[in-house]
């Protein structure tokens, strides 16, 4: 990427990786974060950013250093006992007129397991919350949801060692149907899915305590959660130590949401909501649930239809770490699911 001395550049950064949260930085240059997931943020300056699969981040970079060649670099963040490919991907931030023979310098990225950087970086993300770009955070909540994130193993005679990994929300691993969910919802097709996904786990436990490796009775099914149109929803996503703790970037289709709180350990419904940021929380569509911790989001269900929510690590979503919301139609055709085009091929 060739740059001119004294100019400022807007970089639109997308993490298109399948299974890696990434640190990104440019040697010798600061990054000013101004937007995440297509929503403006309060600007702040940092030497590196953290970006999860499915997330986007816009940064301003001033070409104000000595003319030369500087590596842009990205490498994985992983603070759980899970093996990752720790290679560093690079490109070159090159000032105009500098010959290609000049050796670039590498940025000082955080260590691959730098939990403190990850937590402090995410705390700096705040909505702009100005008259032109308000943060319309739901203050009154109609529906409170609590979903646990877990791993497990199940019998699989055709698999190596006779078992396979599954992943679940509230101990339910999602099973993909043979008919499109929106198609089944619109045409009221029976037997495709149920709307009995539980609002909370059936059995509370010490979610982030000692690793739990026993047979946990994880079930599989196409179970959705029905949400009333225009209702306000608070969802707490709780990581667990079922086999292992790990960071999970969760993406909700069809909506932006506000990240009102996050913490390490078990969510405490009696104390943690008092610490929520309800003034200028970051608004986005993909959020990282910290390793061995929790994240609370709020949104208004004003977009009718069937909307997936899933871990954006491809391996995990393939193991069943997903579910879907059925948001009911509102009053009138303008607030209802549109009919499919006549030439839409069936799923």
TrEMBL record:
Name listed for the protein in its UniProt record: Laccase
Required co-factors: Cu cation
Stretches assigned to the Plastocyanin-like domain: 2-97, 197-329
Function (record text): Lignin degradation and detoxification of lignin-derived products.
Superkingdom in the source lineage: Eukaryota
Cofactor binding, note field: Binds 4 Cu cations per monomer.
Gene3D superfamilies the record matches: Cupredoxins - blue copper proteins
GO cellular component: a single term: apoplast
Family: Belongs to the multicopper oxidase family.
Species of provenance: Malus baccata
Cellular compartment(s): Secreted, Extracellular space, Apoplast
Catalytic reactions on record: 4 hydroquinone + O2 = 4 benzosemiquinone + 2 H2O
MF GO annotations: copper ion binding; hydroquinone:oxygen oxidoreductase activity
Gene Ontology BP term (one): lignin catabolic process
EC number(s) stated in the UniProt entry for this protein: 1.10.3.2
Chief location of this protein within or outside the cell: secreted
Keyword set, alphabetical order: Apoplast, Copper, Glycoprotein, Lignin degradation, Metal-binding, Oxidoreductase, Repeat, Secreted
